[in-house]
Amino acid sequence: MWTERLQELGIELPPVAAPVAAYVPAVQVGDQVWTSGQLPFVGGVLPATGKVGAEVSGEDAYGYARQAALNAIAAVDARVGVDNVARVLKIVGFVASDPGFTGQPAVINGASELIQDIFGEAGAHARSAVGVAVLPMDAPVEVELVVELKR
């Protein structure tokens, strides 16, 4: 079902990003899967580094949040298969922000809108969009997902 939707949208799930520290990309607890924070890696490389509102524009960061969410979906898929997702429960988005930048919600919309495009009504989710001083590897964004599985 979701695999077909991804194909309709012309979206190919990337390989799961290799952890950059001591953790796993996703864990299953009962009927939920929680992903680790996913950076916007493309082919194993960060497309940009720096603070949003300084070195990285809000518009570019929106795209990076979308890529980080796609990487999180790939982690879910590798763990349980994306077609086993019943709904997306929560997105947590972190934005490495210049002190004057206050557009974190608009940046994390990149993740939210991708999730809604793929999962439709099942993609309606709770969310946090948090500005932080710095992220691992000086990434501009990081995204986590919590999904509920079909029973």
Describe this structure in words.
- The structure is a single chain.
- Strand 3, helix 3 and strand 4 form a beta-alpha-beta unit.
- By secondary structure, the chain is α+β, with helices and mostly antiparallel strands.
- It is built from 3 helices and 5 strands; from the N terminus they run H-E-E-H-E-H-E-E.
- It has one domain (2-149): 2-Layer Sandwich (60s Ribosomal Protein L30, Chain: A).
- It has helices at residues 2-9, 58-80, 104-119; strands at residues 26-29, 32-35, 85-96, 126-132, 141-149.
Query: What is the CA–CA distance across the termini?
Result: 15 Å
Beta-strand percentage range = 15-25%
- What is the CATH topology classification name? 60s Ribosomal Protein L30, Chain: A
Going by CATH, the architecture would be 2-Layer Sandwich
Task: Give the CATH superfamily.
Answer: RutC-like
- Output the radius of gyration: 14 Å
Would you tell me the structural class of the helices and strands? alpha+beta
